[in-house]
Amino acid sequence: MAGAPGVELATVVDPDPGARRYAEATPGYGALEEALEAVECDAVLVATPPRTHHPVAKAALEAGKHVLCEKPLATSLEDAFDLVEVAARMERVLIVSQNYRYNAPFRAVQRLVVGGELGELASIRISCRRDTRPLFAPEDFRYSMRHPYVLDMSIHHLDLIRAATGRDVHGVYARSWRVPDSPFVHHPAVAALLDLDGGVPVIYEGDWATHEAETSWNGDWEIVGEAGRLLWSGSEEDRGTGEVVSKRWGREPLPVEQQDLEFVEREATLQALRA
Q1: Residue 242's pLDDT is what?
Q2: Domains held by the chain: number
Q3: Which CATH number goes with the domain that contains 114?
Q4: Is there a single domain that holds both residue 94 and residue 107?
Q5: Beta strand 43-46 pairing with 66-70
């Protein structure tokens, strides 16, 4: 965000001096309240552990700042509604970052589904499997948080489901569980059956401590309709890349053209803040 035209990084707030130095911000502050008193800024970007989103975002809003918050907005509905109320009262913009929906392959999927390429939707199947043990440091907050996979990973996929179909979820049956040899205190694996508006079923599974072949962070998708199906397999190296294939019934599979959307999310966020 700091590299976008018309945007200047005012400062970085982190209780860890090493993190502030890593961000190369001068000056940096150890507490948000201190920074808000000392630095002039228009907006605050909240990229902290989920349990702190509510108090940090609320303090920024009450100081008269717009807020772009990492997902999830909060860890409870009560706290989420509270932030929405504060933003409305202070007449500030509150945005939750959902960056996966701006991936080029997903936008190709969305274009075809919304455009009726598949006809009436019949079902959606999503599987995402990652072994995060080599990726997260031993002290990473995700190892101790409740519902780590759902709050930190499924939240992307659920947002993509709604964005791709234009439908809300009205029914859920889900189970999560511990993986015995993983460092997660709570549940890094989940399986769910979702019912979308119109009765479209979504079969969903996710795992952050898998021993199976890994997918991309986007997961492997199959969207089935009356006219055919779409397959999306993301790249393990880059969640912004991957192959989308259209398979119309009775025809040869065709790769779907994708557009470069590297800066779309950034520009959309800035437009909302400037409006």
Answers
A1: 64
A2: 2
A3: 3.30.360.10
A4: no
A5: parallel
**Whose CA is closest to 97, among 166, 152, 52?**
152
Residue with more model confidence, 254 or 202: 202
What is Dmax (Cα atoms) for the chain? Answer: 65
Same domain, 127 and 224: yes
pLDDT tens, residue by residue, 222-246? 999 999 999 998 755 555 556 788 7
Under 8 Å between Cβ of 88 and 180: no
Q: Is residue 7 assigned to a domain?
A: no
Predicted local confidence at residue 263, as pLDDT: 59
What is d(CA 227, CA 218) in angstroms, rounded to the nearest whole number? 24
Side-chain-side CA neighbours of residue 182 (13 Å): 26
- Please give the angle made by the CA atoms of 110, 113 and 118, to the nearest 5 degrees: 150
**Crossing angle between the packed helical segments 104-114 and 155-165, to the nearest 10 degrees:** 40
Rounded CA-CA distance 126/134 in Å is 24
Q: How far apart are CA 238 and CA 99, in angstroms?
A: 13
Q: Is the peptide bond before 27 cis (omega within 30 degrees of 0)?
A: yes
β-sheet bridge partners, residue 188: none
Q: Is 94 helix (H, G, I), strand (E, B) or coil?
A: strand
Q: Which domain holds residue 118?
A: 100-255
The closest of 156, 152, 157, 126 to 140, measured between CA atoms, is 152
